[in-house]
């Protein structure tokens, strides 16, 4: 994850929430009063958001300290301590909501990815995400998919060519669309073609696409059609896939299964902040540790 980009994102998020100042915190506490709290899991799942916690609190309060109790990708149970954070009371309260919102969402995505990946054991299929991410959060959401054991699809329109039905219709067909894409992109950019019929599949093979996506096809159709796909072409299944039928799609022989639901409709993992009695910093040894 790009730390420079993460810092920029967090600054924007904090500015949205704090604005010209935190009226509640400034009304009740001085700028020097210190406190500490624990971040606690209220649900079991995969944790994700180590850097968000460490970078977030350091941006709000440079003298804050963070002691992580878990790592990204760890399975946590309800009641587990995720991290202990100490700093000024104003800083803790200003950073708490934004940071919790992010790590709850990231952990929810990581947990969903983990559940999907567990359905593919014993097959070659890998679970991947899509571009159906929350605007502004794509880097964090795609990182969370990785922490859950999934892999990333293209990150945006800029790093791969994906020819969908409208591209193909406007271009006059799959072969024409792929030829134009190859002439434009050169040899370093992969070209994926979305197909819905066996005729389109044959055209995509003839055009020598790098990746063929079976869109809204049944596992039975894919299992039959995939027999004519050369080993040099990567295959992907997408559309109408969920936890209840992932296993069937994985058994069809595809290389990848893409799931928009990993990011567009995931449930956040419940995490809270619990205030602790304050211990002076000089009394604590090795307060800051990314990996306790």
Within the largest sheet, what's the order of strands? 6-11-10-9-8-7
Looking at CATH, the homologous superfamily of the largest domain is: Aldolase class I
**Estimated helix fraction:** 40-55%
Q: Which secondary-structure class do the elements indicate?
A: alpha/beta
How would you describe the overall organization of this protein?
The protein has 292 residues and is of the alpha/beta class. It has two domains: 125 residues, Quinolinate phosphoribosyl transferase, N-terminal domain (Aldehyde Oxidoreductase, domain 3, Alpha-Beta Complex), CATH 3.90.1170.20; 149 residues, Aldolase class I (TIM Barrel, Alpha-Beta Barrel). Helix content is 40%, strand content 18%. It has eleven helices and twelve strands. Helix 1 packs across helix 3. The C terminus is likely disordered.
Question: What can be said about this structure in brief?
Answer:
This protein is an alpha/beta fold and 292 residues long. It is 40% helix and 18% strand.
Ordered list of secondary-structure elements with their pairings:
Elements (H helix, E strand, L loop, with lengths): L2 H16 L4 H6 L5 E8 L3 E2 L3 H11 L4 E4 L6 E2 L4 E8 H30 L7 E3 L9 H10 L13 E3 L1 H7 L2 H12 L5 E5 L2 H9 L4 E5 L3 H7 L8 E5 L7 H5 L5 E3 L2 H4 L6 E6 L16
Parallel strand pairs: 6-11, 7-8, 8-9, 9-10, 10-11
Antiparallel strand pairs: 1-5, 1-12, 2-4, 3-5
